[in-house]
Amino acid sequence: MSTSSYGFSALLFFVLVMSSLMATFASNFYQDFDLTWGENRAKILSEGQLLTLSLDKISGSGFQSKKEYLFGRIDMQLKLVAGNSAGTVTAYYLSSQGPTHDEIDFEFLGNLTGSPYILHTNVFTQGKGGREQQFYLWFDPTRNFHTYSIVWNLQKIIFLVDNTPIRVFNNHEAIGIPFPKNQPMKVYSSLWNADDWATRGGLVKTDWTKAPFTAYYRNFNANACVWSSGTSSCSSRSANSFSDATWQNQELDVMGRRRLRWVQKYFMVYNYCNDLKRFPQGLPAECKRSRFL
Ligand SMILES: *[C@@H]1O[C@H](CO)[C@@H](O)[C@H](O)[C@H]1NC(C)=O
């Protein structure tokens, strides 16, 4: 065998191995999730590549991950309910169990056709939330899939939309604020009716003539530590960035900080850290410590 054909077969072998690994590691909803609510309103389609949730007058629907994670980077692509989605809420979040649970939330509040969705975020630590920040998006989230990610390490939690950081929750254990670090979380999502509060504070009701309402999910990726029988193993399970563990000490670089400021300046609708009316005795302690809460 000549050296060049040897080189070629080595390359071919490499490509075959890589593509089979990629196939193994590509997201598959059958393998990663259980449909937990709403009977046939939750569906896995296209051989596990697509998941849909729907909501009608009788029920919403939901799913949850089979695995529990303790730190990592979790990505999912969502395409939200199109048209008149007023009154609907699509929640996508990480949560542990029990009364002192930790939780990291994305919630998408629907709206009338042509009016903007609100992306609502929150962080619960040891059962305590009340840390809402809300944003408009800089695109129409119902036209295409967009990537919503959570980076969660010991120093901070970063919420990202299409890789743009929109929110950072820093570890403030030094001043006595609990940080999610020892309760493993599952990934959850659900689509439900919340027309008593979601759209313009409950003023706009769900138009049931438009039901069923449908949201779409694809390309789940957990580059994360999986929790199983009391231990955590941090494999990277990623189709595109094979051994990417940058989430473990991810900080915002100059570009990231600039993007974060841009989002917070032009797209932020609500920030609990600015709500003096709500906290007449003084803002929560973590608010004073960081410009980016
Ligand atoms: C819906 O649109 C109105 C403007 O028409 C806006 O004030 C509101 O923030 C939007 N979003 C929600 C969830 O109410």
Might you state the CATH topology name? Jelly Rolls
**Helix content estimate:** 10-25%
CATH class: Mainly Beta
Average pLDDT for all residues: 90
Q: Using DSSP, what is the number of strands?
A: 16
EC number: 2.4.1.207
Subcellular location: Secreted, Cell wall; Secreted, Extracellular space, Apoplast
Family: Belongs to the glycosyl hydrolase 16 family.
GO cellular component, one term: apoplast
Q: Helix and strand layout, with pairings?
A:
Elements: H1 3-25, H2 29-32, E1 33-37, E2 42-45, E3 50-55, E4 61-65, E5 68-79, E6 88-95, E7 103-109, E8 118-124, E9 133-135, E10 146-152, E11 156-161, E12 164-170, E13 186-193, E14 213-228, E15 231-234, H3 254-266, E16 268-271, H4 285-289
The site of 2-acetamido-2-deoxy-beta-D-glucopyranose has 8 residues, from loops.
